[in-house]
What we know:
The chain is an all-alpha fold. It has helices at residues 2-14, 18-23, 25-56, 58-69, 73-116, 128-149, 156-159, 162-180, 186-195, 197-212, 216-219, 228-269. The protein is elongated, with a radius of gyration of 23 Å.
Amino acid sequence: xxxxxxxxxxxxxxxxxxxxxxxxxxxxxxxxxxxxxxxxxxxxxxxxxxxxxxxxxxxxxxxxxxxxxxxxxxxxxxxxxxxxxxxxxxxxxxxxxxxxxxxxxxxxxxxxxxxxxxxxxxxxxxxxxxxxxxxxxxxxxxxxxxxxxxxxxxxxxxxxxxxxxxxxxxxxxxxxxxxxxxxxxxxxxxxxxxxxxxxxxxxxxxxxxxxxxxxxxxxxxxxxxxxxxxxxxxxxxxxxxxxxxxxxxxxxxxxxxxxxxxxxxxxxxxxxxxxxxxx
Length: 279
């Protein structure tokens, strides 16, 4: 617990570092620009396609007619845009996570290592393409888990538990690999991840709940759809900050564990001095 809290406060302090703040703008420029372009080009067509699909389902069509009969035409109008946003937010989170992993995490790890672990040897335990493939594989698994768990979201407590747990697992798997790939060998990385898996999962779950906070921007009111272009950029920036904080937290925790492991190995490798016979 002390290691978790120590790395947490160090990560929070590092997020105020000017370099980390500047690095967090890179995913915003990339993801925000792409999302804004796609929204400008396909928003109306996506909403129209979802609205047409809803009207083709007899059960949904009956529900829409009932909403109109009770005077809730506004909800009927906003249902399709809300569904488009609900489908787009997980993709936005995943895209931001991958961008932070590729653009921000390596720089954060180098900053943490240079300032706190200058003597830690870089053993290059993972190539960049391995990190990309690992991140993509974990992302596909997380998206499948989200898709399978959607019916359980109808149970009120589970909707507050399952998505953050899945995002936490994804964050744990991605960042624990990325922050150790530069300094740890594959064997060292597997040992650290296996021996501290519950602590790493706890960090991931906390970051998963923090990552759910930007989604509340869309849940405040249906009127937020009017400001959708601006809220998309704000959401991307908030997701970037959360994942940048996660990168700092995992870097501090994992590099400290790696240093502790190597120190223990070095002590174990030193032969004990023979005791001199008493006179």
